[in-house]
């Protein structure tokens, strides 16, 4: 058993599925649970998708919990049409995976996170790759966890590049900027893995063919799921030449910060109408000598991709 423990907080779409695979394959961490959130799909569907992916990969020992179903400033959530286009209506590229044998946990994901923070302290790594609603709710319920959790590495935000849902906002932050602002201004040891670096780490059908060639069910299914994603990127972002490894990059950086160059910065999230969801330096804390956020602004994409392929190919070959 590794000393480091990881919790993923996912709105399980295609890149979230790759994040699960990376966390399972990484030799230096134990994935101890997955919390579901909304975004690419509804929260309950994200939970079911996580169970399906875990079953496909032979890891039915990892519990999956439900988190909140909408932002703290709304009373419901509807999947954006662009999300359904990018990830498929079922969230996993319209690939049909069997109904999970297991059920979702009855305990709330927020309570699970609080318990884990107290149990594992500095050995706990949290990787949220959707809106930050669940972490903000946990902080409100038990403010002590901001000091307890060893590391929070999130996929979201954009500092040096434009957003992807507005000129300033990235999709995950845009779903619940108020929650994101609570996290950015209160959580210790926060690393932001945003569009600044995720759009530079790309996967092509050359790589998914390597999974297909393994001849395993997991390799074929993941190739089918990710090929759907790559095909959508050809329409939405033809200039990239592949699909971005948004969520799995956050898992990679959580385990090996040397993959990215970072800028230490106290940040906040703008919730005004004009700048809704913008992740930027916090004017109120600019002179604070110890910034709580490290923003990834450059990435060793080749080294990351090599490790990503090594980890996932080994996992799918079993």
From TrEMBL:
Keywords noted in UniProt: Glycosidase, Hydrolase
Name used for this protein in its record: Inosine-uridine preferring nucleoside hydrolase
GO CC annotations on file: cytosol
The keyword Cell membrane belongs to this UniProt entry's keyword annotation: no
EC identifiers of the protein: 3.2.2.1
First-tier enzyme category under EC: hydrolase
One GO BP: purine nucleoside catabolic process
Molecular function in Gene Ontology: purine nucleosidase activity
């Amino acid at each position: 058993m590794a000393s480091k423990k990881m919790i993923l907080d996912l709105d399980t779409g295609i890149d979230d599925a790759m994040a699960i695979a990376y966390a399972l394959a990484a030799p230096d961490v134990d994935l101890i649970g997955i919390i579901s959130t909304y975004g690419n799909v509804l929260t309950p569907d994200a939970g079911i998708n996580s169970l399906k992916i875990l079953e496909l990969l032979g890891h039915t020992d990892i519990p999956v919990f439900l988190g909140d179903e909408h932002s703290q400033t709304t009373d419901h959530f509807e999947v954006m049409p662009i999300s359904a286009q990018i990830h498929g209506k079922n969230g996993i590229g319209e690939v049909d995976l069997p109904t999970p044998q297991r059920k979702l946990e009855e305990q709330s994901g927020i309570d699970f996170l609080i318990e884990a923070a107290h149990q594992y302290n500095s050995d706990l790594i949290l990787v949220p790759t959707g809106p930050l609603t669940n972490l903000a709710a946990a902080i409100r319920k038990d403010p002590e966890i901001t000091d307890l959790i060893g590391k929070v590495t999130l996929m979201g935000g954009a500092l040096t590049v434009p957003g992807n849902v507005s000129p300033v906002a990235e999709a995950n932050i845009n779903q619940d900027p108020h929650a994101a602002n609570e996290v950015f201004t209160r959580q210790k040891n926060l690393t932001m893995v945003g569009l600044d670096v995720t759009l530079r780490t790309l996967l092509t059908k050359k790589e998914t063919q390597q999974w297909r060639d393994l001849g395993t069910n997991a390799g074929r299914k993941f190739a089918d799921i990710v090929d759907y994603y790559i095909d959508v990127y050809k329409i939405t972002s033809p200039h990239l030449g592949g699909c971005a490894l948004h969520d799995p990059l956050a898992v990679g950086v959580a385990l090996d910060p040397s993959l990215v160059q970072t800028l230490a910065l106290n940040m906040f999230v703008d919730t005004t109408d004009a700048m809704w969801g913008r992740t930027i330096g916090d004017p109120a804390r600019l002179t604070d000598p110890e910034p709580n956020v490290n923003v990834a602004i450059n990435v060793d994409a080749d080294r990351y991709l090599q490790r990503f392929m090594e980890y996932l190919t080994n996992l799918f070959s079993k």
